[in-house]
TrEMBL record:
Record protein name field: UDP-N-acetylglucosamine 1-carboxyvinyltransferase
CDD domains (UniProt xref): UdpNAET
Binding site for phosphoenolpyruvate: 29-30
Role of this protein: Cell wall formation. Adds enolpyruvyl to UDP-N-acetylglucosamine.
Keywords: Cell cycle, Cell division, Cell shape, Cell wall biogenesis/degradation, Cytoplasm, Peptidoglycan synthesis, Transferase
GO cellular component entries: cytoplasm
Active site positions: 125 (proton donor)
Domain (Enolpyruvate transferase): residue spans on this chain: 14-432
Predominant localisation class: cytoplasm
Gene Ontology MF, one: UDP-N-acetylglucosamine 1-carboxyvinyltransferase activity
InterPro entries xrefs: Enolpyruvate_Tfrase_dom, Enolpyruvate_Tfrase_sf, MurA_subfamily, RNA3'P_cycl/enolpyr_Trfase_a/b, UDP_GlcNAc_COvinyl_MurA
Pathway(s) served: Cell wall biogenesis; peptidoglycan biosynthesis
Amino acid sequence: MTDIAKAAPYYLIRGGTPLHGEVTVSGAKNAVTKMTIASLLTEEPCTLRNVPLIGDLYLTLSLCQEMGSEVTLDEQEHLLSIRTPAIHSTSVSATIGGLNRMAILTVGPLLHRCGEADIPLPGGDRIGARPIDFHLNGLQQMGATIVELGGRYYMSAPRGLHGATIRLPFPSVMATENFLITASLARGVTIIENAALEPEIIDLIKFLQKMGAIIEQKVDRRIVIEGVQRLRGARHTLLSDRNEAVSLAIAAYLTKGDIYLRGAQQDTLLTFLNTLSKMGLHFEVEDEGIRFIGDDRPPPPIALETDVHPGFMTDWQQPFTILLTQADGISVVHETIYEDRFGYTHALKTMGAHIGLYTKCLGEVPCRFREKQYLHSCVVRGPTPLSAARLDIPDIRAGCSYILAALCAEGTSEVHGVEHIERGYERLDEKLRALGAQLEVIHPSAEDDSLDALA
């Protein structure tokens, strides 16, 4: 282990404690970063409420500040004010822009306001290939000239961007968001065919509409944007994070606990709640949140397939797979969104889980990976007692699944790579401790003083 790895904080989690109590769900990770980028379309100030205090937000704010944004973040009130009176730089540094995929979303605002953009190749979680061809092809249709050189994309639009009919080969969330942002100021009408329609996208549309954009959702996954000459500042309250809600809900069932999630929104969780009902798991929907109630009975097995919204979200697959290790029988999970999202299951098998991966499509949802050699189907046999282990987090959602596994495992687990968790979840460790979890953040420099905490 390198000195850097040794210096990184990690979690010690003793499993087996039922979680009880109430926590508030944070604002949506997958909405706040996109709205922050959308604020670059105007010189006027924008205000976002219910913003989650996560690593990806801070990274995106650094990206915007690098270009000239003035930022005020009230962490206590979860209130973000951002204003970009002028773009100081059209070049996104690899130091910031190469760490996630936000840089590609800056292209539209930069081309509209400056006529050029220079961005690095994108980074992000290791969950399979996520090329930006959809983005590049659509931007070219709208009038952008693109040159790739030395690991960077150089883009220009000296005559400005215009509307186009963009047919997405797959309803990509980020590509849809990119074209919504870019088309809002493009000349003429842009039609996005086969668009993604996730709740976070609808929330972005609401924000853009408040800024003055004209956007209509049509039937058959079509979104029509009529470009306007200018956009104004706006104020918006983000929807809650449905991924955090699902993770904490599953923690209630895994630990046989009882958790009330204030701010959890039924309309964004319909498919997840339907799946719980099919398994006979108890929950109660209230006006201000949702209560999830576990018991001693192992849930029945289920056949599950991820799909684009309104299907079962791919980000829910990992935490749900942990729940299926405790189900009474054989469950099947068919992943149709990403081809390489079961890598985390190797660590679960070291904890005692019975999991097999297969290249065949074990489901009925049309799948891009059919007849290809991707391990994108998973068979889980339960119920299996899990044993504590050292776990190294590869990405945000897998990391949360490791925490869930540790919460229901026998013994004390070490969970390393918690920076991935902090990128996508706001103070998850504090929320879990508030619910009674035996979780300690270990800082290696003070390790000798902290190891007794879970003894």
